[in-house]
Amino acid sequence: MIKSFNEIIMKVKSKEMKKVAVAVAQDEPVLEAVRDAKKNGIADAILVGDHDEIVSIALKIGMDINDFEIVNEPDVKKAALKAVELVSTGKADMVMKGLINTATFLRSVLNKEVGLRTGKTMSHVAVFETEKFDRLLFLTDVAFNTYPELKEKIDIVNNSVKVAHAIGIENPKVAPICAVEVVNPKMPATLDAAMLSKMSDRGQFKGCVVDGPLALDIALSAEAAHHKNVTGEVAGKADIFLMPNIETGNVMYKTLTYTTDSKNGGILVGTAAPVVLTSRADSHETKMNSIALAALVAGSK
After folding, report:
1. Is residue 128 domain-shared with residue 110, that is, in the same domain?
2. Considering the entire predicted model, what is its pTM?
3. Longest Cα pair distance anywhere in the chain, in angstroms?
4. Both 171 and 289 in a single domain?
5. Cα-flanking dihedrals φ and ψ of residue 272, to 5°?
6. 139, 267 in Cβ contact below 8 A?
7. How far apart are CA 75 and CA 1, in angstroms?
8. Shared domain check, 207 and 96
9. CA atoms of 192 and 108, how far apart (whole Å)
10. pLDDT mean by block of 10 residues, the chain; 301 residues
């Protein structure tokens, strides 16, 4: 089973190289990530944006711009729409946000004519490699859905399972995270968790097992699960951590990022093709890892 981003990148490199369309590509950190992604055999790119600015930044960072196709579109909104259209028409396999506001970018992703909407819930999946755990940790949703209800959580689980399958985890264990591991009618997240678990028991989820509610310590640690006498297939062995809301997910994401020696990458899924939706604060390595994740998911259809 794959347990690191180095292994993810090796798996990507063993497959046919995918192509990412970058929306408003005149952004130094994004171009650095795209440059190195191609150099390392992870993905090629089509750069959509202001031609002169792209070339200027490329010269600054030592990027051979002749290795990349550039689509000149100085208008930000039109550039985003064009990048998405390249994916929907099969000229690229995934799309990446560049120097553009997230809301504007996502409007292009959801465009009725050339967008990537599927009718299902879109959700963000963040994958972490940490020193303490001998498995990858999948966090969802930490960046997109705010207060998902049961219907959205079903799609979020299925979206994250597809990412886990693409990486090579055949039967990921999903933990709906709550503050406690018992059903409490005053805590709606525990009711959702119990219903998701029952759905899993009855075979309504394919290629995974869901069990909860589980507190975070019990989902993460076999020792904690043992001490608290919580058993089951997921307790202490969870791969996917279904967050009850965006506050919980965002805090966990940033805690892992800034207080642990970890690596991570994340993508938006539930779309017709993977979307690399990174923050300007994300490291160069995180952007590279996110492109690698998107390439794997794009190649798993």
Report:
1. no
2. 0.94
3. 63
4. no
5. -70, -20
6. no
7. 44
8. no
9. 32
10. 92 94 95 94 97 97 95 97 97 96 93 92 96 94 95 97 96 97 96 98 97 96 93 96 97 94 95 91 89 93 64
